[in-house]
Sequence to fold (530 residues):
Amino acid sequence: MTQHNKHLIIWKDMLKGDLAALEQLYSLFHTDLYHYALKITEQSDLAEDAVQDVFVDLWNYRKQITNINSPKFYLIRSLRNQCLKLIKKQNRLTDFAIVNPINIIIAPAELQLKAENDFVKKAIETALHKLSPRQREIIYLKFYNNLDYEELAEILEINYQSVVNHIHKAMIKLRQADVLQHLKY
Amino acid sequence: MSKNNNLVELLKNASFLRWLKKEDGVEESAHWNKWQQEHPENAQFVEDAKMMELGIPFKKQSINQAKTKANWDKLGTKLQNATSTTEPSIPLHKLQSTRRNWLKIAATIAVVAFSFLGISTYLNKVERIQYQTGYAENQTIQLSDGTQIILAANSTLAYNDNFVELDNRKVQLSGEAYFKVAAQPTGKQFIVELKDLAVTVIGTEFNVNSHRENSIISLVEGKVTLNKEGVAEQPLLAGQTASFNTQTAVFDLVNNQTDYWADWRYQKWSFGEGTPMKEVIQRIEETFGLTVELENTTILEKQASGSIEIDNQKVLFESLSYLLNIDFSINGSQLFISQKVENEE
Fold:
């Protein structure tokens, strides 16, 4: 059985009201979800709250959930919305609206490199910094969490073509900055 | 975008992706190899598609069983307590507003000013009255005719206290103020004199900013005329904002910017959609008396929109820092703005 099918079976059990299945989902996805939430919120307590809220909502509203092909996709999408909500609440003393408040950072230390030297790291850091916030978020979701283009389009509420264009442009920028040759696949 | 359209199609094609990842069968392999030979112009697509499939390799964070378990236990309690309609709990946040009770302070000052005014009238002398605000400080001034003036930070308002004798009421302003002018007796006018022009009023509400080289007048209610020597007088309608353009020698008029110019009196700044960073910086300089220095010019490309409370300087800077992704450091009267440096996790 593939990982994916295994996840779906647990998911269906959870939807039927099996609390043990919810715990299984939690232990399967908590690490990745927390990782993403921390990147968005940059505060560990807020990140953990966001993850917990996602699971509380999932449990409370499980009867209304239909047709989910990928539990991970569903959880990441909910988490992103929850983080945005918490950020907004936290800043409620300003009703400042910024088009995209998510500006995640990818550090060179998070990537698999052929050689760990400071010079290369600095070059990679600079190149990653030059990507737009949206490009960074998309390549993070795509390559850290292995989401597909359609799922990315739905999570970010942009169309499929835009997702492809963002990744294409981001990768070209990284290639031009000679980053790709230092990566260990 | 036809080039990327092709790329989009290819990346949707499961067979093509299998071939890219070398997971294809013999027949598929033959098909795509042939396709590549027949369309050498597609070499770039194939290369780009490969690059996009490979992406960038992250180190995967391994699951910390103990931490996950501990968090699950916490969650378990939440689930038991939760009824199906509870709102997710929101943590206390660090940006708690500590609203300064500036109104009370302003009222006290106004009372003191009033008694001063009373004494001077009693002595029947022409008294020069002057109000001055410091940085990040507002002051509400009530004139004897019912006119209310809110003096913005770093500004001075002065007038001769002989309103009764003179035909017109004249006040002089340097800096910025919001005027709510009471209806004047027939034949009398209320005039705000600025360094570059004068605003003649007949009962109205408007904001004047004369910090800048050319004063900016925003009319919230009523009607005023702008008077400049050697130029035809310019009537201003409610909702309009005007300044005299020294280059073209005419008044520049814009609509719908009065909130932006006049909301400081409610202790907030209202930025319209896509307000340039330059404008935000200028506001900071005018209000807090700081000289701003930038780490680099890309900071100027940032834009603000929405409104933000300004009654607490620390909170304001924290919010701006968070929302515009910039860092502030203050050294004396210098404010250094830099791109935010992210902490390593």
Q: What stands out?
A: Residues 151 and 157 of chain A are 10 Å apart (CA to CA). Residues 108-182 of chain A form a domain with the Arc Repressor Mutant, subunit A fold (CATH 1.10.10.10).
